[in-house]
Design goal:
Bound molecules: zinc ion
Helix content: 55-70%
Number of strands: 3
Strand content: under 5%
Largest sheet: 3 strands, mixed
Structural class: mainly alpha
Strand order of the largest sheet: 1-3-2
Low-confidence stretches: 1-34
Radius of gyration: 23 Å
Mean pLDDT: 92
Length: about 525
């Protein structure tokens, strides 16, 4: 998994359950005949068991990517497949559909947790039930094969090795969209799996607004000259990198009594449950950036999971469904806080205490280095400004693949042409081009847009928090993050999956998804940094 990829694990209901049921019983006992209470109890109990299976699978998956000895790979694959099959069987049981139908006819208050539970479960149930079991199994096998072939092809820098399997993935993805159903575009059905309620047309609208200003900004920066990141490229002791990153994660509010930081090859955050949210990172002893900003990023994901309301535990409401919202939290802490000048006013003296080699580097020089803009080939290493162009080109190619206007064999040429157009550079090989991401080999067409949607949401939310608490900027310069975290807890984290992103944004910020604030943030920050007119 890529550095900025959250491991997606959908936990379904169970422990919101005791809370929900007791409250439901208290509220409804007078008005409802007994069977209605029984129906909710029955549903939440079933969902709770499924949630436990998901949690067990999450832990096995975390172990697989951290400490599992390599000889256990096949056995672990089998264990995960069995758990996945079991939970899918339990979740798509016709009885769950019946329980939902009964509850859907109950006059639950529209903003109640009970109504949200029924709505969220129905959405997941329908998605899971629409895919025939043999299709799910066939697709899972294809993905396993495709991931292996993708890794080989990437090592060999040869897309043609991967192309036949990607061709099959695209064909199965089209079938998947047909099974799931859609109104306007097959991409809608896929996107909905990562960003519930989001439509392709909306992504196009947002990306179209972003593209012009970002391309213009990249060009202006390019014309202006370069900032140096030399201060970040010197020996940095790994143990000290770890200690500093962890100190910052804890300062943000990451609760280590319910979390831990480990090493991995491709960093990720994994929520086993809200009581056990783990983050991982990797260290480069000659380069400060990957471990430091990777940890701050995963901390943002972890704060979200740790902040979900206790009463949603073991419930689908406890499992955040919007990857855009999830990414908004990682980007907020990594970039809006972690790459801000104010944050380093507080953090730079601490960093220098760990690494006295930075004593000769003024704060301004360090701040410029961590915000250096440089068109590059690899998405996960891209700076804040160019990052979104990497996402846009993937989105455009995915649409063309699904629409049949782009043949799989033509991907490398199409990819390179877009990189040239947007970034002004040409990938020297497929490993630095169209083979760099694991997503397509995992059948994850429709995932990429959530990264940029997360960027957009992050600024909307951050600005709303600062409108409510103007002291947040000053707080950050003094290492106080509690007010910001509390606002995010109240307005985002605690709601879990209760609201789709559009509704949550409206409630928290007063606006729908709007790229304006994000464009304003990028333009203002980088005009100042690069002294642009
Ligand atoms: Zn992320």
């Amino acid at each position: 998994m890529e550095r900025d990829e959250k491991r997606v694990s959908h936990h379904f209901p169970e422990s919101a359950y005791s809370f929900l049921v007791s409250r439901f019983l208290a509220d409804q006992l007078v008005r409802y005949p007994y069977p209605m209470n029984h129906t909710l109890t029955e549903l939440t109990e079933r969902l709770a068991v499924i949630s436990d299976l998901h949690e067990a699978a999450s832990l096995l998956s975390w172990d697989q990517h951290t400490y599992m000895p390599p000889g256990a790979t096949a056995a672990r694959g089998q264990q995960l497949a069995t758990l996945s099959k079991l939970s899918h069987q339990l979740f798509t049981d016709a009885e769950i559909g019946k329980l939902l139908t009964v509850l859907e006819s109950a006059p639950l208050a529209s903003d109640s947790d009970e109504a949200a539970l029924v709505k969220v479960t129905r959405r997941l149930y329908d998605r899971a039930s629409k895919l025939p079991a043999d299709f799910v199994e066939e697709f899972a096998k294809l993905r396993t094969q495709a991931q292996q072939r993708w890794a080989e092809a990437r090592r060999g820098k040869d897309f043609s090795q991967f192309a036949p399997l990607l061709q099959e993935i695209v064909a199965m993805t089209r079938r998947e969209a047909d099974y799931l159903g859609y109104l306007d575009h097959p991409y809608d059905a896929l996107l909905d799996g990562y960003e519930p309620g989001m439509r392709t047309a909306e992504v196009k609208r947002v990306f179209a607004e972003l593209k012009g200003p970002i391309v213009a900004l990249v060009q202006a920066i390019k014309a202006q000259g370069r900032l140096s990141d030399a201060p970040l490229r010197q020996p940095f002791d790994e143990a000290k990198q770890e200690a500093f990153a962890l100190e910052m994660a804890q300062a943000f509010g990451y609760d280590l009594s319910r979390g831990r930081l480990d090493r991995t090859v491709h960093p990720f955050a994994q929520s086993i449950s809200k009581y056990d949210v783990r983050i991982t990172t990797r260290y480069n002893p000659e380069y400060l950036v990957p471990a430091l900003f990777g940890t701050l990023h995963e901390t943002g994901h972890a704060l979200y999971e740790q902040g979900v309301a206790d009463e949603y535990y073991r419930s689908p409401l406890g499992s955040v469904q919007s990857l855009g919202l999830h990414e908004s939290q990682s980007r907020l802490w990594e970039n809006l806080v972690g790459r801000s000048r104010g944050f380093w006013q507080y953090a730079y003296p601490k960093l220098r205490a760990y690494f006295p080699g930075l004593n000769g580097v003024p704060l301004e020089e360090f701040y410029a280095a961590i915000n250096r803009v440089e068109p590059s080939f690899i998405r996960v290493e891209a700076d804040e400004v160019t990052y979104n162009l990497h996402i846009m080109l993937r989105f455009e190619l995915e649409l063309a693949l699904l629409e049949g206007t782009l043949a799989v064999s033509d991907i490398p040429a199409a990819w390179n042409a877009k990189v040239e157009e947007y970034l002004g550079i040409t990938p020297p090989d497929d490993a630095l081009g169209c083979l760099q991401d694991i997503h397509w080999s995992m059948g994850g067409i429709g995932y990429f847009p959530t990264y940029t949607l997360g960027n957009v949401m992050s600024v909307q939310l951050f600005e709303a928090a600062k409108r409510a608490h103007p002291e947040i900027d000053l707080d950050i310069t003094e290492g106080r993050f509690a007010t910001l975290l509390a606002w995010l807890r109240d307005n985002v984290h605690r709601h879990g999956a209760k609201y789709q992103a559009d509704e949550l944004l409206q409630r928290a910020t007063g606006s729908r998804l709007d790229p304006g604030p994000y464009i304003g943030y990028l333009t203002s920050k980088y005009r100042t940094l690069y002294r642009l007119a």
